[in-house]
Amino acid sequence: MIRPVKSLGQNFLRDENIIKKIINEINPLPNETVIEIGPGEGALTKHLIKSEAAFTAIEYDRRAVEHLQIEFPTLKIIQNDFLKFDLKSLSKDKLRIVGNIPYNITSPIIFKMLENRELVNDSVMMIQYEVAKRITSKIGTKDYGILSVLLNTFAETKFCFKVSPNVFYPKPKVDSAVIHIYFNKKIDPELNEELFIKLVKASFNNRRKTLKNSLSNSIFRVYDLNKIDFDFSKRAEQLTISEFINLAKIFDNLTNE
């Protein structure tokens, strides 16, 4: 048993029913390349290593690495920070990324997968319930924001199931949820993705304000919004993904004039 470290966001999953539900959602198949982030004590690892998939675990905590090497002598494990790790070094095949991840670095992990989505097939992750709601939320809701727009632009998202704090040690102070992200969307080749991401982030920076106010206080203040044929009186949460894409194209065209 490993003593959980709060600063590492460690809450170890202990409930076999939940573990099996997650494994069923992952459904690792032969010839697939599966990467587990932060295996900890090995709750998911012990099932994944039995599959016929090419399986690798990436763990930051040296204590956990040593524990897993003893428990699973054949396990391929890399001691590293996933956020700093070069995913291209793992396989030429598409990766499947899974794990019960530290909640304090959920967004950076998701953004890393987005940035490397040409390498990632899909991801099954246990995350904080409130974040899962934001990721899978619809336009006009209070949960609709940066993560929901970006993930649903570049991927398909699925809310799998909610998870009680009682299945972890120690118990987190929040509910959790399992989500499944599929990085299979075809993106408009004319979309400047970097500009689009900056636009979405700037738009939601002051979500209670109008787009005009939000963008005027961002890198987009160099544009004369009054001369652009777009309704900037709306708030970011009122824009569809298509509207964000169209606005990004407008800005991109103005930049290239």
Describe the largest sheet.
Answer: 7 strands, mixed
Alpha-beta classification: alpha/beta
Helix segment tally = 9
Helix content: 25-40%
Distance between the termini: 62 Å
Total strand segments: 9
Folded structure, characterized:
- There is one protein chain.
- The chain is of the alpha/beta class.
- The chain folds into two domains: about 5-180, Rossmann fold (3-Layer(aba) Sandwich), CATH 3.40.50; about 195-255, Orthogonal Bundle (Helicase, Ruva Protein, domain 3).
- Helices cover about 35% and strands about 20% of the residues.
- The strands form two sheets. It has a seven-stranded mixed β-sheet with strand order 4-3-2-5-6-9-7, with helices on both faces.
- Helix 2 (about 45-50) links the parallel strand 2 and strand 3.
- It is elongated.
- The termini are far apart.
Descriptors:
single chain, alpha/beta, Rossmann fold, Helicase, Ruva Protein, domain 3, two-stranded antiparallel ribbon, 9 helices, 33% helix, 19% strand
